[in-house]
Amino acid sequence: MKSIISLFLFVIIFIWVCKIYISDKKKFRIVEYNRGEQYLLSRNMYFTIFTVCTAPLFLYPFALFKYGLWFAGIFLLIFTNHVRMKLESVMILYLVFFFWLCITMTWTTAPRDGYMMLVKYFIPIEFLWLGYSSLRNEKDLVVFLKVVNVAACLYCFVIGGFTQYVIPSVYFFFAGIITNYAGFSCFLISIFIVPIILYWLTKENKYIYCALWILLSPVLQAVRTGMGGMFLVFVVAIYLRYKQRSLPALFFAGAMFLGIILFVPGVNEKFFGENAGNVTGEEIVTGNALSLDNIEMSGREYMWERVKENCFYGNEIFGGGLGTSGRYVKDYGKATQGLQMMHNDYLQIHCDAGLVGISLLTIFYVAFILKVFAHVVLRRSTVLVRLTGIMALSSMVGMGFAMYFDNVVSNSMQALVMPFIYWGFFFKALDLEGKDKRTLAILRFRKERQ
Model confidence over 398-426: pLDDT tens digits? Predict the structure, then answer.
């Protein structure tokens, strides 16, 4: 039954994607921006919104077909000039990292797994170009935020933690059709910034409730990665917006995070295992109760040690080749009836691409942080630049955290691509700002010549 529903949804999605760029009708792209004000979305922005809103649809066993549709579809849009390729210094650093991954394919022992990983690492670049080609002005961003916020809240009702406890039959029926548990929490990390930005723009309290509703899902399911990622998204966003004035909000966020760990039984047990109920707030704040040595890792540390012994040692500098560690984990998991996923993207990169690969990725992260910090904190930029910069960096930090404990790259369509879409928005906002400054300079020059 689930397979039939997944196939049906995939066919609908395929037809809808084709309709966006083939149909001459504009009615379906018209939205009500304000009461009585109609606004026409571009094809690219409509496709971007459609992409994010359908991201949690996993469509098992047709998930790879969905990957293929977007991968090939955006390639086609690039070749037909619907999507513009943007080469920027920070993005070039990511391309250098990707090029190194391609080089490691020359000595990999798992070429099929390696090629699949290459696709998953390249997809974010495609979505960056899509995001860049989608944004035209502030109205595009507002429409994007409002639609994505509604979609995220609806998904939380269908497949979130609340539904798992209150209407479990609905939850387990949609599990697999829609990504669930850890994969869904990573999606929520990537869009958690959306209601925060909407509250800043509108000052409407309903967006605070939306953010809390989204946060409730990983709390009820005790998904530590989801809670930690959302905490970091909030912290980074608040700091970038308010700088030194953010201390009260950061203190409140820290206290709330600590309270959830201590007083939500399922979360407390997930963190501390046999020591649940015995760890105090003082031990968390002043001690090392939340160190990796003291929290329950659900078998991750055992698998990580096996991976290091068989895939890392001896290949420290250049790696064993893309896909080798992932193939080892799958084979080992099948043989032992254990985990078949590594739950650590950084370890996988380190094993497959060596110190060179992990260093290139780190350089990319640092350059991206400095880029956003320079335009959002150190200089007075337009509102659009600041908002998109905050979206990009906060969501990237949240995803960066999740990559240490989950398989974010393997589920790139559900979460990893979102920060890259925001990143595309940010670069386009910078270009729009530069264009406005050049226009003003020209007008000022003409006025002085008259």
Answer: 999 999 998 899 888 888 999 999 999 99
Q: Is the CB of residue 194 less than 8 Å from the CB of residue 182?
A: no
3-state DSSP assignment of residue 178: strand
The dihedral built from the CA positions of residue 300, 302, 307 and 312, taken in this order, carries a sign that is positive
Instruction: Considering only CA atoms, give the Rg of the chain.
Output: 22
Q: What are the φ/ψ torsions at residue 330 (nearest 5 degrees)?
A: -65, -45
pLDDT band at residue 233, thresholds of 50, 70 and 90? very high
Longest CA span, the chain: 82
Structure tokens at 248: 């009260």
Q: What is the mean pLDDT of the chain?
A: 91
> Do 403 and 346 form a contact (C-beta atoms < 8 A)?
yes
Q: What average pLDDT score do residues 293-299 get?
A: 76
pLDDT in tens, 260-286: 998 898 898 888 887 777 777 777 777
42 Rama class: left (phi>0) / alpha (psi -120 to 50) / beta: beta
Helix (H, G, I), strand (E, B) or coil at 64: helix
**Using an 8 Å Cβ cutoff, are 158 and 66 in contact?**
no
> What is the CB neighbour count within 10 angstroms for residue 173?
16
Instruction: Return the beta strands (E) in 278-360 as ranges.
Output: none
pLDDT digits (tens, 9 = 90+) for 36-92: 889 999 999 999 999 999 999 999 899 989 989 999 999 999 999 999 888 888 999
Q: Are the C-beta atoms of 330 and 337 separated by less than 8 Å?
A: no
DSSP helix/strand/coil, 30? strand
Amino acid at 216: L
CA-to-CA separations, 400 to 48, 190, 326, 404, in angstroms, rounded: 22, 10, 19, 7
Q: How many CB atoms lie within 10 A of CB 151?
A: 19
> Burial, 70: exposed, middle or buried (Cβ in 10 Å; 0-12, 13-18, 19+)?
buried
| 380: its two tokens | 């007075």
Kindly provide the b/e burial profile for residues 123-139, where b requires at least 16 CB atoms within 10 angstroms of the residue's own CB.
Answer: bbbbbbbbbbbbbeeeb
**Section 215-238 average pLDDT:** 95
User: What is the b/e burial string over 259-272, where b = at least 16 CB atoms within 10 angstroms of the residue's CB?
Assistant: ebbbebeebbebbb
**CB 88, CB 131: distance < 8 Å:** no
CA 3 vs. chain centroid, Å, equals 26
